[in-house]
Structure of Extracellular solute-binding protein family 5:
Amino acid sequence: MGESSEPTSSRRRTLLRSLAVGGSLTTVGCMRRLRAASGWESVSPVSVEIVALPADADPYALRVAQSVARWFRAAGLRVAVTPVAPEELYRRVLIRNDFDAFVGRVPARLREPDGLYALLHSRFGSEPGWQNPFGYANLDVDERLTEARSATGEARTKALAAAQHSIARTQPFALVAFPDAVRAVRGDRFAGWTRRDYRSPLGYLALDAAPDRPADAAATARTAPDGPAGTPTERATAADDRATTPTDPATLRVVITDRRPTENLNPLAAEFRWSTALTGLLYDRLGRETGDGRVEPWLADGWEFETVDGRPRARVRLRDDLVWHDDEPVTAADVAFTYALFSDVTLGRTDESAATPTESEAAVAAPRFRGRSSLVADAEALDRRTVEIRFVDCTAEVATRALAVPVLPEHVWRERTGPASVGGVDFGAASEVLVSNNVPPVGSGPFTFERNVPGDRLVLERDDDHFLADAAPTDLPGEADGLPSYERIDVTVVGADETAVSMVANGDADVTGTAVGAETIPRIGRAEGVDLVVGRSASPYVLGYNTRRPPLTNPRFRNTLGHLVDRRALVEDVFDGYAWPAASPLAGTGSVSSDLRFEDGHPVTPFLGSDGTIDAAAARAAFREAGYEYDDGTLVGRD
């Protein structure tokens, strides 16, 4: 039989009449299926995959994801929760943008008022790294965050408040909670644990020898034989033997649950760098951040700001006689090179394999420190110790943030700006800068690389030629007062928080370098000689959305999802009370207006339910108001 010549619209009407014979259509779900069958429109269930770190890599992320999934399912969504190993999760989220939603933590540095610019400005939506991994595009937020960079006083306060309100309404991520940072420490070998910030290398540098330790113990350790002057393997073995001596006062023993720092020491590798504590001991910065948010000179002797053509400009003078760990001098040219590399890791290389000239000429920005490096228009070495840094439109106070990035040696990193190649696969416009594991690293920091066993151990040695050996305490920022009493750091990787705590309790480690889950607190409390250190973390957990993918492109849809997250229930049930809910990523910074404080509930997206139980009827009504419908209890959207 040949094709019917009946007009399409007529055939559809005939089909509908035949389908309706025997009675009227009684449900919206049936009607929608009939419309889909007739070709009027197609509908599909709304489904979301939530990726999160597994329990052995993060004590809370997977449990948060599972709780959120239950609430979403109660509202009619189809939800899958997928545990993903750290490197793969961060590659999917930060580099490939291959996700629907993720549960994870936002780095603390992005919580600065100016850090929001990198986290959410649309200019960064196509770049890799923590700068706008959500693909969020909101012109109002762009305008307010740009304004806040160059405004002062009340104008800056208003701009930040307006940006935060818009973010809270449109929900590029649902802020879950700020966890308490729980650590186990021993006070019999080192003191001052409760006064330190272990997110920063300054916290470790400022540790004191225990008061009851023999006065000459550190001196004895420093003058101990260095072992055989043989092959690197023999020297590494000797160093390892010394580092594993439990009573050795010259070794700070750190246990962590994240193996990535033992595998990769590239300060620009977004998927490997969560904390800068270890790489911050290897790489110095022009300035270091202090606890009150200021940036004070570190590698720099100081700096002077002036305003030229309405924009800030700084002349930065380096300390004298600085050297890299390979004994090459640190110069102003290294500083200028660093900012050029951060701006474009290819340094303007022309890629002949690119499909178009536009591709070959496009800059490839470094995926870390982007918010800060984007403040720099250009940098120029004036002499061996002086560099002039010219900034974009911002205030001098904001510009100083750009001085707190790691300075890299040009003679090491310039050769890495060629095309990236892994296993013979050329990554075209990318650069070796982004894929190098940077082992062994060459920095100028107070510690040098000694050895590593990927996935198991990392040993760093104190650099007694570092400027800290001679610097007066009044010259240094924050807690730093010179080189520490210990001469090496031995970092050991274990598979679980409980194991890490047991190592400290058994005297095999001095501190859990990565924060551990609240479920370990009873174990810490029972252990003799072990102290519990709890501090408020500046890194919140978020449920982040890929706003590039429907239906997450729709801010009304994301806003409704925000109403399905009971932050208080998560704090009690998942974090055991060791966290605090918030409505703004700037909570605790003094930059949040009173109407965005989390008190009785979220002030913008209050939970549609109570005590961790969704009001399903209210949730479905909210989705219908946002333009969605239900088919036999399943939320559906139009294709």
Q: What stands out?
A: The chain has 23 helices and 27 strands.
